[in-house]
TrEMBL record:
Belongs to the carbon-nitrogen hydrolase superfamily. NIT1/NIT2 family. It comes from the Bacteria. It comes from Thalassospira lohafexi. Keywords: Hydrolase. This is Amidohydrolase. Pfam families: CN_hydrolase. Residues 4-252 form the CN hydrolase domain. Signal peptide: none annotated. The keyword Hydrolase applies. The keyword Iron-sulfur does not apply.
Amino acid sequence: MTRFIAACVQVNSRDDMSDNLARAATYARDAHAVGARLIAFPENVSMMSFGGENVRVAAFLEDEHPGLAFFGDLAKELEATLIVGSLHVKARDEDRVANRCFVIGPDGNIIISYDKIHMFDVDLANGESYRESKTFRPGDAARVAETDYGKIGVSICYDVRFPHLFRDYAKAGAKILSIPAAFTRTTGQAHWHTLLKARAIENGCFVIAAAQCGEHPGNRQTFGHSLIIDPWGNVLADGGTDPGFITAEIDLDRVEEIRRMVPSLQNEQSYKPC
């Protein structure tokens, strides 16, 4: 399928999983009602807890995760492909959890899962401090989802700052890059739009980036502005700062058109590193 409607669901997740899931599903159903059949959700869609111990307590083994079962049922209900930005999944062999994205087909089955590779460990000028690596175990594998809507390269949030990951996805045949996020308000205001447009332009791909918005437990603030961007870098839809959803028509033929105009994937040369 080369032409279809894609959607990003934008939410303000907090520490009540049932409420978070219900709100996300409401927006997904609304997006579906206006034609969306590929629906993306943000990072931490089922839970935004504060503090490593609270995150660990609220995590589940994958086959026991209520959020995963919920989205599987939702995919079947809507007969849509869902990109579940991330759920917190317990590891059996260590204390840290995986920040895991799931791509779920319209039959409710998992197409692929992806564990966030790059950990956001930083102290910001406004006093906010993040140490994801203390709570989350980084993934070690890039994943491309084979869907009814073509190949989708999957990432999560901070991964967007590592362009080689997305280059590898484009070389592997991905025409869509999924970048669900809970981007901080500070870094979002500075870099969110620029980074996402760059990933789209340099790889000749559509970018679908569902985002968290608003204030969360622990006085965390996220930027919002879920984006759908075409391969030329045009913003097709911007979610602003409030919960809701956005949609845009995706025409995958546009990918080949842009890649012919700027054939950087073919022109790329190997070289010796410094």
